[in-house]
Amino acid sequence: MLRQRLNDDLKAAMKSRDQRATSALRLILAALKDRDIAARERGITNGVDEPEIIDLLQKMVRQRQESITMFQKGGRQELVDQEQGEINIIERYLPKKMSEGETNAAIAAVVEELGASSIKDMGRVMAALKERYAGRMDFGKVGAQVKQRLG
Questions:
Q1: Alpha-carbon distance 39 to 91, whole Å?
Q2: Domain positions in the chain
């Protein structure tokens, strides 16, 4: 479904002559095609599934955020704007992010459900969170919150 939406949106962007959206969607679809080709080695012949597409999109956003940081240090505002535009387009295809309160509630629920009580349980808690909330949480920040809660 997400793959089809990306293709349909590319066609619409091309028809409306939206250069930024066309460029960003072509980048996404090229990266997706690379993932599909790499997946053939694992025996996946009909393309990667939606969770893997979401993972790809999240990585693309992180890469652009890192680039923005570098461009800001270099005083290249036009490149910052370009990267931010691509982030805005990519984020259209990601699940809605959880708020701080929702994230804290989800962490508390998983910790309680698993009976986690020490830092040794962090791996189990993180695995459960990733399984349930993939694409909706920033796991870089969540890891620190789980560690604080368990430690």
A1: 24
A2: 2-91, 100-150
**Which fold would CATH assign to domain 100-150?**
Arc Repressor Mutant, subunit A (1.10.10)
CA-wise closest residue to 19 among 86, 99, 108:
86
SS3 at position 27: helix
pTM of the predicted protein model = 0.71
pLDDT digits (tens, 9 = 90+) for 131-146: 888 778 877 788 888 8
Q: Give dist(CA 106, CA 117) in Å, integer.
A: 16
Quote the CA–CA distance of 142 and 151 in Å, as a whole number: 14
| Number of C-beta neighbours around residue 116 at 10 A | 20
Distance (Å, whole) CA 94 – CA 134: 10
Average pLDDT over residues 33-61: 87
Architecture of domain 2-91: Orthogonal Bundle (1.10)
